[in-house]
Amino acid sequence: MTEISIGGRPVGPAHKPFIIAEMSGNHNQSLDRALALVDAAAAAGVDALKLQTYTADTITMDTGFTIDEDGQSLWEGKSLYQLYQEAYTPWEWHAELFARAQQHGLLAFSSPFDETAVDFLESLEVPAYKIASFENAHWPLLRKVAATGKPVIISTGAATLAEVDEAVQVLRAAGCRELVLLKCTSTYPASPANTNLRTIPVLAETFGCPIGLSDHTMGVGASVAAVALGACVIEKHFTLSRAEGGVDSAFSLEPHELASLVAETERAHQALGAVQLGIQPAEEKSRRYKRSIYVARPITAGEAFTPDNLKIIRPGDGLWPRHWELVLGRRATRDLQPGTALTWEAL
To answer: Which stretches make up the AFP-like domain (predicted)?
Structure first.
């Protein structure tokens, strides 16, 4: 199935990219900031707002496990429990945030991180579910989400091809009929060099469903390139201001960049068009501005055409330059004035 519907909006290669704005923890535990983020996403023109639904206690335990990636992590030195306490979106905010999104005409849904989150989101009648990369091997969660019968978007980060295939099989066996896979590199931020967008058409051919990109790179270049390779969905984290901080702010787009993402991915999709090897109707008038052969000096009847009395110039009202060697040495049938477009009748 190469086309699905999310909340009544078609998603597939024939349609403009479906853009998801991921709030994550960039609300900095302020509901007012969270609502401002919803407003900013709507103003940027995205299709959907996405939250993450968990608490520190539903996603981990306070075991003291500390993030240690040799200084390469944005969250270096924090315990997982600390991080998720800081980053989670309070569940009591969800209804208000979804309502605000709907007021703007945005679809709104979330990534559940355990089965209780699915029950909660079902009570809010979300139109779809997103499975995060770190949950794509959580089969009980996959089955719970699939059983809702709603479209599922799943990221493929930090998974082998076999694990992606297993996840797809689990989802489909449990009732998922509308599925999107997102190519994802689970580093934060991701670099262009480890994004490997050429995977997108391979995933499309392998799994027969719409493919997208969960993009953790800086800027919009990777997302635009992904659309050129067939991505139908783009998910991007966003914030009001990177300078104001936030758990994901370092690799999140600011509002003006989010608007650019919407515009440039749609341009990329439009530019794909169809295979076109001939002259388009829009180009017909432009053909007149190609070069052709013109009389450069006065020529009398019977005089031979030479490089001295002819010139290849614009516009294209005369014989085309490919006839240059054929014309040279032939004789004029009549007197010709400079600026005359040379035609067969003059030879």
So the answer is: 292-347
347/329 Cα distance (integer angstroms): 10
Residue 68: helix, strand or coil by DSSP?
coil
- CA–CA distance, 98 with 84 (Å, rounded to integer): 21
Output the average pLDDT for the chain: 96
Reported pTM: 0.91
Torsion sign across C-alpha atoms 111, 85, 164, 198: positive
Fold classification of 12-272 (topology level): TIM Barrel (3.20.20)
Which residue in the block uniquely carries the two structure tokens 């997208």? 212
Q: Distance between alpha carbon 274 and the CA centroid of its chain, in Å? A: 18
> Residue 245 corresponds to which tokens in the numbers above?
């901080």
Backbone angles phi, psi at 196, to 5 degrees: 55, 60
Architecture in CATH of 281-346: Alpha-Beta Complex (3.90)
Helix 139-146 with 161-173: angle, nearest 10 deg: 40
- Collapsed DSSP state (helix, strand, coil) of residue 233: strand
Indicate the pLDDT class of residue 72, thresholds 50, 70 and 90.
confident
